[in-house]
Amino acid sequence: MPEPNLPPLRVNLRTREETQDVLSVPLIKDRIPELPEDSRRKLIEQFSLRPEVAIQLVNEPVLLHYFLELTNQNTRNPTKVANLLLNDLLTVLNKRKVDVEDCVITIRQIRELTDMLLNKQINLEICRKVLDELLDSANDTSPLDIITKKGWSIVTDEEEIIKHCTEVIENNPKLVKQYKEGKVKVFKALLGILAKNTSNKVDMSIAAAKMEEMLKK
């Protein structure tokens, strides 16, 4: 028996056309926000993210917005972008006791900083320092301007890196002797001294290769 107090419901299941008396189901689906489960599945399928990473991003809408903006052109590694947001940015925000929703860093700033990190123009330590500085910036300050002003640029010139490696080798003969005797674990100690001497401002991948090459001579 029809309910006299409810009008008849007529639906259109196929097209997005609707009238005052007919509702379009496809159109209603378009208007419904994406469910968290669907968002997580898309992140995993489209960007090959681990499930736990997808869950974290979906749980933080601001970080998800950053992530989607940074990966929309398929020019950046999605996993590295996610790690930057979930590990480094969150670390800085938590240290400053700033909620993610109150983060003042703009898309342009995070995009520029991400590209510098991925292109090895800076390392993670400098990246975190810049993020910390950006939280205090009153306007859309360029990360590059901050790095230049603070003198935080990474040294990639091989001749300069070789010079630093030479200083470490000459000033640490005991460690060098141990390495040449087969105690290769001290290599990390030599790299640690190099990093400390240069305030972590050298490309350590280049430095490690040059240091190893020099020690084997």
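^ that was protein a. below is b, sequence first then the tokens
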Amino acid sequence: MSCGAVYAVCALSTTTLSFVLPAAKCDFHLSSSDKGRLTATPLIGMCVGSYFWGNLADARGRRKAIIGALLLDALAAFVSSLVQSFPAFLACRFFSGFGIIGATGLIFPYFGDFLSLRHRDVMLCRLEVFWTFGTILLPGIAWLIIQDPRLNITAEGADFQYTSWRVFVAACGIPSLLVVLLLLPFPESPRYLLHMNKAEQALQVLQRIFVVNTKLTEKDFPVESMISAYDGEEAEVVAADNNGNETKSPLTWNQRWNAFWNRKKMLVTPPYIGLLVLCCFVDFGLMFSYYTLMMWFPDLFERFSQFSSLSPGVSAGVCEVSANVTRDELLGKNECPQAIDDTVYIHTLVVALSCVPTALSVGLSINMVGKKLMLVMMLISSGLAALGLNLVRSSLQNLLLSCVFEAIVSCTEAVLFCVICEIFPTKVAATAMAVTVTCGRVGAIVGNVVFGALVDQHCVVPIYMFGALLITSGLLCIILPKSTRPERPQ
């Protein structure tokens, strides 16, 4: 529950800007291109931050890195609610992305380190459900805060503005602080402690787990000493008694470097280099489509709302609505400030709720259907749903198709990660995952910039790009091998 709460907060922080786009448009005089830059900036922070937090977690521990990442995210949220210029706001959101990616990336290995192999897959799949809960919570918080005129704390036209959307941005930093309090009672990962040759501390953690779970005393714990062992070329055995006395010294830096380089060479030789390029292409296309539309859905719903108020009874597609609303803004028909229509919050909430059945069913059915087949089906069907956005003629049709797209695509990356763990050997799987995730974040950056630049006059282009990338990725996944690993023992 605690790790799930952290993951839900990661979803909340990652998607905060989706409601800032329509709400802050007047304060910062944002064009669609500016909105694209705004949604891309935290992703750039994520690309930079993932490497930093990964190294910090290896050097100082998983738990400390997660807590530090959450504190930085909260600080960035509070400061970004205060700054008055758009460049300063962009800088703060960069650090928000820089921080939250640390918690997002490390909560899975931290949680998994406490689980036995028998329970690990099921429990990690359950953790995915909390991401959906975070996206459900967001429109509720936004509706309660942004729509409340009492939270426009400063007078209109004042030099220092603190309006309701700024209160919302600050409020989205509070959960990051609260989940830090949830993590404080928990120990460091025992697997990490063994990896760092701190066998005595690892033993103390396991003793504590034993005491909590069994209500017995530490003296009843049957293990008296711990041994950490590594496979392959990094073989290094360190035994310790209760006093932590080591019986073997660790590898030298030169040995570690050689082992590290041998692993990387494996990843860039056939067949793994081809599999890596394919996985990177799939995640690039997936995040290009998923993250872009996820961040822009509230803004698109707001455009439909404005169009309906200006042209009641007229049916139009997504691209026609965007073009008309933009033209009306240029002609001065849409005045600032504007309150976001209630339907925007309701529609965003409905889209988030549509992901719940998928999030629950994927974990239950993935072994029956098969990871590869499920990945192919999800990519192709979400691509067809994306192409269908060009065919909608009303706000209701747009909502229904958005629900279908989001429900399918929201869990697709998790299935891709399961496939990566199957097709790459253990010693290079983590590196393959890191490279793939980075390519996905680059795809999200490019997608947001492209969509922001084209949505007003040429929005049919990015929509066709979304569909083409997803369907092509799905067809390419057909050539993926089932697994390169031996069958796991029952």
